[in-house]
TrEMBL record:
Name of a matching Pfam family: Neprosin_AP
UniProt-recorded name of the protein: OLC1v1001739C1
Neprosin PEP catalytic domain: residues covered: 71-319
Transmembrane segments: none
Region (Disordered): 49-70
Length: 319
């Protein structure tokens, strides 16, 4: 078992990244803490445990079409996201605004996350982390931090959080799957995932806290590097009676609503082969249906690469 990383990605980052005033708080932290040498674990029901292992509940956003562009509509999963060119990536980072989106039906979810991807089809390997509202998996409609992984395209391997062997938590300061506070000054969560080549693991850091790691042994292709990084939002559209869901993505506002209203990712960075945080070589974007959920990408001095995204789902232009 690893106790701490052998290294940490270097790189000069804008001061706005380290703004502690906006960092997200988990509800359990308001009433207690766990002693050193232990980790906090959320109690779950058997129903929630089984729901978290259902392979149909997850699907990757990117499967290339014949023209090489991402296919964005699979199994009624809908997306608004950005992606890197195919390459070799040793990690990724972003700061994500946190919200509590409306989820219309119990078998639907709304999430915002980072994907590290290698392979495709049944050989797909992913590492995923972000926040979600997922009543089927977590039993309520609260916003929760999560991690996920698979090595066979979500068929038989992988799970949320600590619900199967895979992700190893080392911190006593955070509950994976714990509910978070999404009120007050715009809360944010900064996520960093990087490959520790010496230890043969992928480390996860939330808001400066090193949470734990995914060991190489649970992967096939991600024993090496990721070939693609994606950042964005995802929902499930049950499409009952042919009517689009009213489940929100992000804040439930379209990208053009802007700061304080629309959800965003900022300071999108990747880790290169020198273990340095750098800008992605370029950023592409895609949406399933921009009348339901859309995206607007930009670049600035303080936010680097960023994007606003989301929407309300069902509306006059998205019946």
């Amino acid at each position: 078992m690893q106790r701490k990383p052998s290294n940490h990605p270097s790189g000069v980052l804008p001061k706005s990244i380290d703004d502690k005033k906006k960092e997200i708080t988990q509800l359990w932290q308001l009433s207690g803490e766990c002693p050193e040498g232990t980790i906090p674990i959320r109690r779950i029901s058997e129903e929630q445990r089984n729901a978290a292992k259902r392979p149909h509940h997850k699907t990757p956003p990117t499967v290339s079409n014949s023209d090489g562009k991402p296919a964005v509509n699979q199994l009624r999963h809908e997306y608004a996201y950005t992606y890197t060119p195919t390459g070799s990536y040793y990690g990724a980072r972003a700061t994500i605004s946190a919200w509590q989106p409306f989820v219309e039906r119990r078998n639907e979810f709304s999430l915002s996350q980072i994907w590290l991807v290698a392979g495709s089809g049944v050989n797909l390997n992913t590492i995923e982390a972000g926040w979600t509202v997922d009543p089927a998996v977590f039993g309520d409609y609260r916003t929760r931090l999560f991690v996920y992984w698979t090595r066979d395209g979500y068929q038989r391997t992988g799970c949320y959080n600590l619900r199967c062997s895979g992700f190893v938590q080392i911190t006593n300061r955070m509950v994976i799957g714990g509910a978070v506070v999404t009120t007050g000054v715009q809360p944010e969560v900064t996520i960093l995932i990087w490959k520790d080549v010496r230890q043969s693991v992928w480390w996860l850091q939330y808001n400066g806290v090193i949470v734990g790691y995914w060991p190489n042994s649970i992967f096939t292709l991600l024993k090496g590097t990721a070939s693609l990084v994606e950042w964005g939002g995802e929902i499930i559209n049950s499409n009952v009676n042919g009517i689009h869901t009213a489940t929100d993505m992000g804040s439930g506002r379209f990208a053009q609503a802007g700061f304080r209203f629309a959800s965003y990712f900022r300071n999108l960075l990747v880790v290169n082969n020198k273990n340095t945080l750098v800008f992605p070589p370029s950023i592409g974007s895609a949406t399933t249906n921009s009348n339901c959920y859309n995206i607007a990408v930009g670049k600035s001095v303080n936010w680097g690469y960023y994007f606003y995204y989301g929407g309300p789902g069902r509306n006059l232009n998205c019946p």
